[in-house]
Amino acid sequence: MTSNQELDLTIGIIGTHVPQTSPTITWRDGHKTVLPAIFDDDNDDVNLCDQVDIPLIKYMSKFPQSNIHSKHVKHLGKDSLSSSDVTRIVSEALSIHKCVKISGVPFTPPHDGKFDAHYLDVEFDISPLRPVQVHDVKKRCYNHASPHIFSHILSFFNNMEDPTKIECILDVPLAQESGPWHRARLEPNTRGRSDNIKGFLTYPHHDAEGTLTWVRMEVGLKFWVIFWLKSGRNDRIQLRNLAVKLADFSTNIKWIQKNCDGEVITLVPGDILILPPGVVHAVYTPVPSFATGGHFYHYSCMHLTEVSRFIDAEASYGTTNQDMEHALETLRRMLIAIPYLSPRIRLYKRPLLSLCMMATKGKHYRAKGSSAESSMDTETAEPTANIADTIYQHFGVTERKRAGDILYPGDQYDTGCEVDRVALHNSLKESLEL
How far apart are CA 103 and CA 100, in angstroms? Predict the structure, then answer.
C-alpha cells in the first residue's frame, strides 16, 4: 500500500521551488500536487494560471487511475517483453486505438540522485551549453500562440528553483542514440523531454501527422490523461469534434464536461507508454522530470493515422503539438516497401487502403500551418502511385467505388479483414513485374 508521504508530491517543493502560497490539489488516486502559480506583473494577487491551467488540471484530477481492467489502455509487465507474442499483443492493441503501458523496464536514473544538467550531459550526451527552445508559462498566459523563449540547458536548470518561473523543454533530438556504442539503447528519432518542477501542463492535443508516440520515464513522474467520448462513438465527425473541442478547453468546457470521459495514466521511472495515432491527451508534470521518447508509424495503425491527419488538415491550429515535414515522404516509402515486406507481417484492409490514400494524395492531407514543400512530389511519387493503383484494383476500388467510400463511414477504429498476403503479392508481381 502506498503511504500518504509517497503520495504527497508537494514535499520539498512548496516554499523552495514554488511560492509558499501556491495552491495544491489532491487527485482521485490520492496524489497531492502543487497547482501552477504565476503572478501578474502588476498585481501579485492575480495568479495567471487561474484562467486556463488550474481549471483544466482540476478537471483532469477527477478521472480514475488507469488499471489492468481499462478498456482504453493495455497494461503489461516487464516479463511480457520476453514473450514471443509481445509484438503481436502490442500491435493488436495499438491497431484498435488502445494505448499500451509497460511497467518495470530498464531506465537510466542519475547515479548520484541529482537531476541536473550534469546528468543529461553524462547519460545522454546533451551538452549543458546546448541551445533549446523553452516553453514559458508566463508567456503562454499572455499569448498562447507564442509561448517560447530561447535559452540553453544550463540556464533552464538554473531556473528550476526560481519560484517566479514555470518552464518546459518539450523536445531535444538525440540523434547520437542511433549510433553503435553502448548508449544506443533507444530507437532512432529519439527525443528527450524535460519539464521543470512547478507543475507544467501540456494542453489537450493529438500528436502531429498521425504518428504513434512512445515515452519512457527516466526521472520524476507524469500524469498522462487520455480522453474519449462518453457516447463511445468513433465515427469521423465525432472524433474530429473531440480533438477540436478539447484543444480549446476554456471555450468548450460545458460541452467537454457533458460529452468527454478519460483516465489518468501515471508514469514513473521504468514505465513506457505508447500512444496510437489520434489519442487526445494532456500531460501534467508536478515534479522535476525527464523522459526519453519519439514518434513512429506502424502498418497496422494506418487507418488511425489517416483520421488523425484528416483532422490536422481540416481543423484549425492547436490540435497538435509538433509539425513533421517528412511525413508524406515516410508514408510513400512505407508503401513502396509493401511488395517486399516479410510474409510474417500481418496487413489489414483499412490500414492498407489508408496508406494508399495518404501516400498518393499529399495535398489533401497537408496539415494547416505546414509548409507547401511538405506535400511536394519527389522521385518516390511515381512508384507510390503505381503500387497504390495495383492495391486499389486488388480490393475492387474503382471510380464508382472509391477508397474513401470504404474508409469514411462507420467505426474509424476498425481494421477490417486481414489481407491475404499471397494473393496481394501475386497481384503486385503481375502488375509491377517484380
Answer: 10
**C-alpha distances out from residue 186 to 9, 122, 289, Å:** 29, 16, 18
Burial class, 161, CB count within 10 angstroms (exposed 0-12 / middle 13-18 / buried 19+): middle
33: number of CA atoms within 13 Å, CB side? Answer: 26
Please tell me the distance from the alpha carbon of residue 102 to that of residue 166, in angstroms, as a whole number. Answer: 30
- Name the 3-class secondary structure at 188: coil
What pTM was computed for the model? 0.92
Give the integer Cα–Cα distance in Å for 105 and 216: 9
Distance set, CA 107 to CA 80, 124, 260, 269, 272 (Å): 17, 12, 34, 7, 10
What is the enclosing helix (H) or strand (E) of 56? Answer: helix 53-61
Type of residue numbered 128? P
Quick one: DSSP state of residue 46? -
Cell of residue 127, nine digits:
551538452
- What is the distance between the alpha carbons of residues 338 and 344, in angstroms, rounded to a whole number? 12
Cα distance between residue 175 and residue 69, in whole Å: 37
Bridge partners (DSSP) of residue 126 are none
pLDDT in tens, 376-404: 778 899 999 999 999 999 999 987 788 88
Non-local (6+) Cβ contacts of 257 within 8 A are 59
> Tens digits of per-residue pLDDT, 6-33?
899 999 888 888 888 889 999 999 999 9
Report pLDDT digits (tens) over 340-380. Answer: 999 999 999 999 999 999 999 988 888 776 666 666 778 89
Give a three-class secondary structure readout of 112-174: CCCCCHHHHHHHHCCCCCCEEEEEEHHHHHHCCCCCEEEEEHHHHHHCCCCCCCCEEEEEEEC
